[in-house]
Design a protein that fits this description.
It contains 17 helices and 25 strands. The chain is an alpha+beta fold. The protein folds into 4 domains: 11-124, PAS domain (Beta-Lactamase, 2-Layer Sandwich); 131-247, PAS domain (Beta-Lactamase); 339-499, Heat Shock Protein 90; 514-626, Response regulator (Rossmann fold, 3-Layer(aba) Sandwich). The strands form 6 sheets. Strands 3, 4, 5, 6, 7 and 8 form a 6-stranded antiparallel β-sheet that branches. Strands 10-9-13-12-11 form a 5-stranded antiparallel β-sheet.
Length: 630
Amino acid sequence: MTALHDAGDPIRIPSEGGSLHIVSHGGPPMAAFDELGRFVDVNRAWVRAFGWSREEALAMFVEDVAADGDAAPESVDLAQRRGELLAPARTYVRKDGTTFTAEVTTASVTSGGRTFGYSIVTVIDSRRRAELSRRRADASFRALIETMPDGVIVHRHGRIVYVNPAARAMLGYGSLDEVVGRRHVELSHDDERPEAVERTRAAWAGSASSPVEDRLVRKDGSIVHVEVVAMPAIFADEAAVVVIARDLTARKAMEASLATADRMASLGRLAAAVAHEINNPLAYAMGNLEVLDRELRRAGDRVPSDLLAGFLQRIATAQDGASRVRDIVRDVKTLSLVEGPAEPIDLHRVLDVCANMAEHEIRHRARLVKRYGEPTRVRGSEARLGQVFLNLLINAAQAIPEGSVDDNEIVIETRRVGPHEVEVAVHDTGGGVPEAIADRIFDPFFTTKARGQGSGLGLAISRDVVASLGGVIGVEGRRGRGTTFRVRLPVGGGRPPPIARLAAKEPPRPTRPRLLVVDDEPLLARVIAAQLEDDYDVTVAHSGREAIAILARGDEFAAVLCDLLMPDLTGIDVLGWIRSHRAGAEQHMILMTGGAIPAQADSSKGPRYLAKPFESDELRRTLESVRAPG
């Protein structure tokens, strides 16, 4: 733009001693206006474009020719600011009422102490209008993909030309320059690259792909699960392929969590069934060993001392093995439950169960050290907390290579943190956690294990479980210095379990109380009778129907010991009959179960539950707590 005197088709701006002439090359419509937006001059091209004469224009304001009311204030403000502006295409009005589209360049000039504005009008023809429309569409497309929550990757001839902010965040890139120019297939997992190439070929041929699941590779080498669609598009005036990637991490984590819960539910049902089948024969095996031990000791001098000692040693060994089987079954039942009741639970018992279950992973790699603080209860369920600590212990074991037991250890430590929290620390002397991944170790599907050796969900689920119980979990560690996971949990209600003490023997009763034993396993019923024959007058029934028939005769019993699951009538059926015909007698009933004790069981309302297998001392204590006096 140039300012010339007496040349071309100028506009004149008043000045001291004359006027300032402004001309633009090409003779476009031009107008000058003052601070209020009143025209002070227009050129001949402006008169031809707008239809008003110069004299008519000098009585008008800028806003009189702008169909868009915002155009006039913009021009006036500009004159006051002494700036320059290329306004976007807008609609203007001719004298005859018709309209046209134009771009207007506005600037300002100072003359005689006053500021004037002047405008150069570029009328837009149909070709120019189409070009502007295309530019607007391109700008709208760019604005849309810049704000999309899904990742957008644009590539052309195999090279990436654009990646939107959502995709950069998803893939871990800080700037566009880090990824533009790379081959687009480099973002796909090696196994998924052939499909990515095929989608690109189809898009170049004009076909959009259907949504499919894919795995993309983040900057740090980790994997993100996505759903992708590839389609042809025009980007920056050239043909390109646009890939839209939706992050499936949260959805996949939810699906995996539900699948895990379903598997755990199936395992729980299987464990309960297997436990029931194991516990019944285990109960009478343990009972018979106990009776055999008692009878041999009673035999005294009738058995040679060397034989007696050998027999008792073998019995003790068998009892120890049976006890280990019982404990294994108990631990499996505890950890296979999907959800247990939220109640005060013994934290150290949960840790012991998890340590027992992880022993096969630990024993060839490290020494297990327990440093327990004061006995503590937390509110939750053994199953859910067991899932957390078992995962931490197995991870700790797998961080240590086999064969160096004496050089490594895994430490479980508990301590109170103030009056309301307890902390559990699981420390290992393994390779540690690199600082680069410490912040992502709890992310779903993030794992450093080889494919097929871990899903990357264990720590993510553990974090969710701990959070649901009102706690927090964190990790500490550096490469080569081991790893420590710390779990803080709110202290729950209830008192810690009392330390077991030997009960003082009571003097013999003058008469033996009557006991009804009901179990469909004849061997178990007989061994229970043998265990209790010194203290009780035992009547045995082998079915629920037989038990009800005995009770219906009017026989009185100090207690009823009944199996929970039987083929005809269950223990619950027998309990129902007792409640209907002998109100209050359910307080003197014990239900034996080889599976899980029902979560709704309430011993304060009767009956009591007793898990198989049990030792005679436990059985006697339970009977003493429920039997009727006399």
